[in-house]
Hints:
Elements: E1 8-12, H1 17-28, E2 32-37, H2 43-48, E3 52-55, H3 63-70, E4 75-78, H4 88-109, E5 113-119, H5 132-149, E6 154-160, E7 162-164, E8 171-175, E9 183-185, H6 186-199, E10 205-211, E11 214-215, H7 216-221
Parallel strand pairs: 1-2, 1-4, 2-3, 4-5, 5-6, 6-10, 7-9
Antiparallel strand pairs: 8-10, 8-11
Helix pairs in contact: 1-6, 3-4, 4-5
Protein name: SDR family oxidoreductase
Pfam families: NAD_binding_10
InterPro entries: NAD(P)-bd_dom, NAD(P)-bd_dom_sf
Amino acid sequence: MPHRAKLRVVVAGGHGKIALTLTRTLANRGHDVVGIVRNPEHVADVEALGGTAVVLDLEHTDVEAVAQVLEGADAAVFAAGAGPGSTAERKYTVDRDASILLAAAAERAGVRRFVQISTTRAGAPAAQGSTPVWVAYLDAKTQAEEALKATGLDWTIVRAGALTDGPSTGRVTLAGRHVPRGSVPRADVAMVLAELVVSGAAVRRTLELTSGLVPVATAVAATGT
């Protein structure tokens, strides 16, 4: 992704807690943010934070429609998820299939930079005795990661630890190797995503993220380009 002073960033799952904070963070830094939302009632929330919103249900659309939203963008961020209380089936239709759809649309639209939120537990099977929904969630996230890695995009996968709604600390542990399991505020995840998008760092790398001691910008810069 060429360095530009002002970027256009499309965020799937635009009404999620991480996505809304990301929208505010990028907008405050002077960038254009487009949030893809499913519910028309969520448009105002995205706009209130400085972004614009496009109403599009990623479970019921096609590559061409998503590619039209991505036209002219510099980066795409997949921050969508079926969310708590959803069925095993929706883990696949949202956490896996919608991610694959967004990546395919990015390739169609010529948007090379793609940042994806995943989970630290992806890449390995669920522990014995896990609920069917949890098994499906991890499997869906793992398949989404593998599909993204198979593309020609300049992807970065962020495997976030257990998410909390606590205030941002601005300090994280971020590394390509396994880090001890821990939690991380959604606000700090958003800060990391913003820094990855703007800096273009960590291309074709999978990163583990938890709370830590290193300032976000320093942590991202240390991942390389």
